[in-house]
Amino acid sequence: MNALNLYDIEDLRFESTASPEVKAADDIVIRVKIAGICGSDLSRYRKLGPYVKGMTWGHEFSGVVEAVGENVTHVKPGNRVAACPTIACGICNSCLKGFPSQCNHLSVIGAKQPGGFAEFTKLPARNVLPIPDSISMDHASLVEPSAVAAHGLYLTSLQPGGTVAVLGCGNIGLLSIAWAKLFGASAIYAIDIDPKKLELAKQMGADVIINPLEVAAHEQLSSLTEGDGVDVAVESAGSPLTSAQVFALPRKGGEVVFMGIPYGDVSIERFYFEKIVRNELKVYGSWNAVSSPFPGKEWTTTIQKMSTGELNVAPMITHRLPLREGPQAFHDIIHQKDFYGKVLLDPTQ
């Protein structure tokens, strides 16, 4: 089969590789229809991370069941599916306590085992979820990042009528905005320095957009909220700078949830750090998208909300390319050859 395989920093190759086969009783082989490029893929492409040289890459995708093991009963060949790429061991203390996102042996396909940037991929049965015909394959490929955003907000105590600020309007930030709306937020503030991302944020449900290049984000937010701040602040930019600045956004007693990963040391000025203590903030780290019972309500709710059209991811999708153009797409994205939202790769073209 054809696949995108990673060999080194910025060394991604479109080449022929062995197709996966059903070997275990709970195996499901999926014919990939659409695969999405994740921000973590871009980071690994530039800086590497956990991977095996020559590994088939990618973890956001949708497809059709090709073959199943003898114990698989919930799907059959020909069924349309989304897939949770996270492999939790199920036997460590965290898994047994119902926190698979904290699994001691957590892994994701596309790092140390073959992923979804290919014509076929393979997962255990419990990682594969049927999707209704009302969800297109393009949209179904965004079930995974949608579940990531939902997982983070589920950690908070956000209630209908609450207020949310999202710092960083990349794909996870945009999906956090959409979920905040579905959670019933009465006001959603989108913060980014890129006007095009802020425009997408408005399409995804943001009520107010803030560009901190004009005036500091917390100053603008304070003015807009009469000095209160918001109930929940989401850090989804993943930069060392914003990882400190986010603490100035919540109200007293408010919450901060980190969904971005800063690939560098975070130095927090006293002004921002004191907000944690003096405002008695609650701070959450959000990792991956799974909960118990595995893979969790993040997945079932995402599929349900997509099926009704309440969760509309269409505005995020800016590019749809053949899989064979993957190496060039990654090069162009990191060198900012265009404005990129969610980029989808099609192995069938």
How is this fold's topology laid out?
Elements: E1 2-8, E2 11-16, E3 27-36, H1 39-47, E4 55-56, E5 60-68, E6 80-83, E7 86-87, H2 93-96, E8 107-108, E9 120-124, E10 128-130, H3 137-140, H4 143-155, E11 163-167, H5 171-182, E12 187-191, H6 195-203, E13 208-210, H7 217-224, E14 230-235, H8 240-245, E15 250-258, H9 270-278, E16 282-285, H10 297-308, E17 317-322, H11 326-334, E18 342-346
Parallel strand pairs: 11-12, 11-14, 12-13, 14-15, 15-16, 17-18
Antiparallel strand pairs: 1-2, 1-4, 3-5, 3-9, 3-18, 5-6, 6-10, 7-8
Protein described:
- Its cofactor is Zn(2+).
- By secondary structure, this protein is an alpha/beta fold.
- It has two domains: 2-142 and 313-346, Quinone Oxidoreductase, Chain A, domain 1; 149-285, Rossmann fold, CATH 3.40.50.720.
- The chain has helices at residues 39-47, 93-96, 137-140, 143-155, 171-182, 195-203, 217-224, 240-245, 270-278, 297-308, 326-334, and strands spanning 2-8, 11-16, 27-36, 55-56, 60-68, 80-83, 86-87, 107-108, 120-124, 128-130, 163-167, 187-191, 208-210, 230-235, 250-258, 282-285, 317-322, 342-346.
- Strand 14, helix 8 and strand 15 form a beta-alpha-beta unit.
- The chain starts with a strand and ends with a strand.
- The model has no long low-confidence stretch (mean pLDDT 96).
